[in-house]
Amino acid sequence: MRHAVARSGLEALYFSGAHKLAGPFVGSVGAILRLHHVRPARSDKFQPNQPLEITPEFLKTLVRRLQRSGFAFVSLDGVYRRLTEEDFNRRFVAVTLDDGYRDNLDWAYPILKQHDVPFTVFVPTSFPDRLGQLWWTALEQVIAKKTSIVLEMDGRDCRLSCGSVEEKYRAFEHLYWWLRSRPSESQMLDIMHELSARYGVDMAAICDRLCMTWEEINALADDPLVTIGAHTVNHLILAKAPEAVARSELKMGRVVIEAALGSPPRHLAYPYGDPVAAGPREYAMAAELGFLTAVTTCPGMLFPEHRARLTALPRISINGAFQRGRYIDVLLSGLGASLWNSLCSGTPGRGAFTTPHRAATSTSPAASQ
């Protein structure tokens, strides 16, 4: 329903021309785009994580549309320089991809290379170490293969029906947010390990199949167009972790990448990246550890005042549920983020978050991975 409302809003803004009229008043200087998977479309009717993936064809559309609109493609080093030096002569955009999926190498890289587009891949080091726990994908697979599932929730046994596609989506939405609300990351993962084992889903195999190896990451990093950024070690919800654990995740994620690639990453993406997962404590830690920039999943454009908030930068999600060229125009006008923020407001724990950098959270479960 949220996606349907958002699509209607994007269509209205585009066809009314409001996004063009708003441009001079929004005053943004650029944007950081957030992607995850780039791969051919799947035919499955149940795809709750589909917002995390776009097709190669849409990536081509995205690049060409931005080129025609006059945006300069820059690296995150370029974003840092332009914000700190107040170089705003031309609107700019930076492309980022989270989690280090193998399809970034197989599908995204050839397209971005062809168009000479610099980009950053944020890598949680446990993923290429083959210790990563992509629990959101495991949850999708559990629900996809069963007509009902049983688990203990808040001290009582619960059965969730997932026979129809509609029931599967409801079950995923309910379980996703219930798991995210667990008091600790370890409790959430314990539940997912038990659920996966009971219903025959191999979480280790998911990581091995979907994520790049260190050899593949090294090959990608050899290209000057590519920046490898930090994304912690274990892709934790940092705000729920004790301070020492959160600091270790940020520090060791950087140290391991330096050991693997020969140079320390200068840029960071907070796992999940919404205000429930990262906040002022994490922003301060990132600055103390020497990261030039750190990005969130809060939707928003970049403004001159972001030079004072370099470790709390917003991004624009290139969402697989909105793969139309005209939506890009609206999103990059700044009105798209405003629309999504208004839909999110008033939802405890998922929205109602406004910061000086004009951004808010996304309520899409998959969108905040």
Uncertain segments: 341-364
In total, the number of domains comes to: 2
SSE pattern: HHEEEHEHEHEHEEHHHHEHEHEEHH
Strand content: 15-25%
Q: What value does the Rg take, in angstroms?
A: 20 Å
* Main sheet specs: 8 strands, parallel
CATH architecture of the largest domain, by name, is Alpha-Beta Barrel
Structural class: alpha/beta
Number of helices: 14
Calculate the mean pLDDT score and round it: 88
Total E-strand runs: 12
| CATH fold descriptor of the largest domain | TIM Barrel
CATH superfamily of the largest domain: Glycoside hydrolase/deacetylase
Can you give keywords for this protein?
alpha/beta, 369 residues, 14 helices, TIM Barrel, eight-stranded parallel β-sheet
Architecture overview:
This protein is α/β, with parallel strands linked by helices and 369 residues long. It folds into two domains: 287 residues, Alpha-Beta Barrel (TIM Barrel); 69 residues, no CATH class. The chain contains 14 helices and twelve strands. The strands form three sheets. Strands 1, 4, 5, 6, 9, 10, 11 and 12 form an eight-stranded parallel sheet that branches. β10, α12 and β11 form a beta-alpha-beta unit. α1 crosses α13, α1 runs antiparallel to α14 and α6 packs antiparallel against α7. The longest helix is centred in the C-terminal third of the chain and has 19 residues. It is globular and about 60 Å long.
